[in-house]
């Protein structure tokens, strides 16, 4: 299986993440990718290529123009305003306020376009987010040209990003862009299966009312886990998208038995629906030692999950999402890919 990877991910490396009331070195850091690359090579998956330049057209189809313009210019405006540090949202529109009037001041705009303040923007964030999307797009191109599957080693990740909000370390929803491009290239029904520990709120939002893209997500229950305000089982889609949003929230301590049962249920529904292409939001933070998550999967369980996904025999694009148990991120990610190939 070919991997698409860009060194430009390094351009996004904030000094700080707001966590537990302290500034800490971000969990989502450049070295995560090095562990995945090393493991790919160690296992002989050394077909690793740089992506082609990003294609803005499908990104513009899916995302809000004001949001894209904000991401492109935020750092410049922030500096022009004399702000000393990295961009961190401090004021977001809350209950009882205007949710749709965009401030002109950059500090206000940051709040408008952000849904979670742990995520900082720096000078290189936009370039890195574009390089991440480019990896996803090239992986899609490889599969559209006839490969069974491809792996986009995306960084920063994407599944929390909506049409007009960043957060949860995500800026551009790479998996959503791939799904849209599968559609544009003629796939009638595209399924996105999100096995990251966190609910893919951005992906859910983007396709909630659509009948051409099914979204299924296995995640920590929103009462207990970020993103807290979305991801309940009764969110099933709306209008013609009704029935095509499948959430599997699970409680703290969930192990592979219950998790795999949810995975099999999702796979069964994707198959019954008749998907003809598949996008996997591949986070490995369901791992037992992940520092910010609470499921109990072992490394071997990721191989098994990959096997189950492979049995669908669909053209598949894997997009890297989360996973922060740094020593194990490479092993767990590559285990999914190897299980998939194995079937
Ligand atoms: C809040 C924790 C923020 C978690 C962001 C989750 C990022 C992730 N202190 N998403 O899949 O891994
Ligand atoms: Zn995650």
UniProtKB/TrEMBL annotation:
<dbReference type="GO" id="GO:0004407">
    <property type="term" value="F:histone deacetylase activity"/>
</dbReference>
<keyword id="KW-0479">Metal-binding</keyword>
<dbReference type="GO" id="GO:0016787">
    <property type="term" value="F:hydrolase activity"/>
</dbReference>
<dbReference type="InterPro" id="IPR000286">
    <property type="entry name" value="HDACs"/>
</dbReference>
<feature type="domain" description="Histone deacetylase">
    <location>
        <begin position="28"/>
        <end position="336"/>
    </location>
</feature>
<dbReference type="InterPro" id="IPR037138">
    <property type="entry name" value="His_deacetylse_dom_sf"/>
</dbReference>
<keyword id="KW-0862">Zinc</keyword>
<comment type="similarity">
    <text>Belongs to the histone deacetylase family.</text>
</comment>
<protein>
    <submittedName>
        <fullName>Acetoin utilization deacetylase AcuC-like enzyme</fullName>
    </submittedName>
</protein>
<dbReference type="InterPro" id="IPR023801">
    <property type="entry name" value="His_deacetylse_dom"/>
</dbReference>
<keyword id="KW-0378">Hydrolase</keyword>
<dbReference type="GO" id="GO:0046872">
    <property type="term" value="F:metal ion binding"/>
</dbReference>
<dbReference type="InterPro" id="IPR023696">
    <property type="entry name" value="Ureohydrolase_dom_sf"/>
</dbReference>
<dbReference type="GO" id="GO:0040029">
    <property type="term" value="P:epigenetic regulation of gene expression"/>
</dbReference>
<dbReference type="Pfam" id="PF00850">
    <property type="entry name" value="Hist_deacetyl"/>
</dbReference>
